[in-house]
């Protein structure tokens, strides 16, 4: 840090002399030097308070290249052993066979005389085989003829339909029993319904017929065949019902 040199000012004895000395060139020069010195001191202090810029030193790395080990040399294949040459076979001479010596005293057997075969009796000629009798013809299965009309008395499974009681008949107290004869076709549908026994009231008879025509049954079966059937069903009309 720089120091400001001391300045010695001379005091003038008189007022006018002091004013002249204040604005004299020498005084102005001294003041300018003092101001410049203070400015320089202030500038130096400002630079002292700033931290010095950091410097980064470069780091040097030294790389060492290690050479790779040499690749292993392929092992030479061992030569295959050569097969040994076949040994020559030594031919051995076989001695010729010795001739067989037959004995001088040989006994020869005489063959026995052949006996003639006994005469066989003549066989009678076989009689010709007669042709077998032809099989009897198989009779065709007997098919029962289809009934010409609806079958009576068959048990037929049907659903139950309750007849509707006519309002007018209930109000005036009409009661009775109606017997309806139904014809059930091969589909199980009631194709017709007729009054066998009337209740005495037309409204009750018609209500019974309507209920019979609404019945659905299983197809009637007779003799293994689907047929039409006839059945009679009673309908009771009571006010208490």
TrEMBL record:
CC annotations in GO: plasma membrane protein complex
Family: Belongs to the TonB family.
Molecular functions per Gene Ontology: energy transducer activity
Residue ranges of every copy of the TonB C-terminal domain listed in the record: 150-241
Region annotation (Disordered) ranges: 64-144
Domain of life: Bacteria
GO BP annotation list: protein transport; transmembrane transport
Topology of this chain in the membrane: Single-pass membrane protein
Pfam short name (any one): TonB_C
Compositional bias ranges of the Pro residues kind: 67-100, 134-144
Bias-annotated ranges (Low complexity): 123-133
PROSITE patterns per UniProt: TONB_CTD
Compartments where found: Cell inner membrane
Keyword Transcription listed: no
The entry's keywords: Cell inner membrane, Cell membrane, Membrane, Protein transport, Transmembrane, Transmembrane helix, Transport
Chief location bin: membrane
Annotated transmembrane regions: 28-48
InterPro entries cross-referenced by the UniProt entry: TonB-dependent_transducer, TonB/TolA_C, TonB_C
Protein name: Energy transducer TonB
PANTHER family xrefs: PROTEIN TONB (PTHR33446:SF2), PROTEIN TONB-RELATED (PTHR33446)
């Amino acid at each position: 840090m720089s120091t400001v040199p001391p300045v010695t000012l001379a005091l003038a004895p008189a007022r006018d002399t002091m004013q002249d000395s204040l604005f004299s060139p020498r005084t102005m020069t001294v003041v300018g030097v003092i101001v410049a010195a203070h400015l320089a001191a202030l500038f130096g202090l400002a630079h002292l308070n700033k931290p010095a810029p950091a410097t980064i030193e470069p780091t040097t790395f030294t790389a060492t290249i290690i050479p790779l080990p040499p690749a292993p040399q392929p092992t030479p294949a061992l030569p295959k052993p050569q097969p040994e040459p076949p040994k020559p076979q030594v031919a051995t001479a076989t001695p010729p066979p010795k001739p067989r010596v037959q004995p001088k005293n040989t006994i020869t057997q005489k063959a026995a005389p052949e006996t003639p075969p006994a005469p066989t009796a003549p066989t009678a000629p076989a009689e010709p085989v007669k042709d077998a009798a032809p099989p009897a013809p198989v009779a065709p299965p007997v098919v029962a003829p289809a009934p010409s009309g609806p079958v009576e008395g068959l048990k037929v499974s049907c659903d139950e339909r309750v007849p509707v009681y006519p309002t007018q008949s209930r109000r005036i107290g009409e009661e009775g029993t109606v017997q309806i004869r139904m014809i059930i076709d091969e589909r199980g549908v009631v194709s017709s319904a007729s009054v066998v026994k009337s209740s005495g009231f037309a409204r009750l008879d018609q209500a019974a017929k309507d209920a019979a025509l609404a019945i659905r049954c299983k197809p009637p079966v007779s003799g293994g065949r689907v047929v039409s059937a006839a059945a009679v069903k009673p309908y009771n009309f009571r006010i208490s019902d």
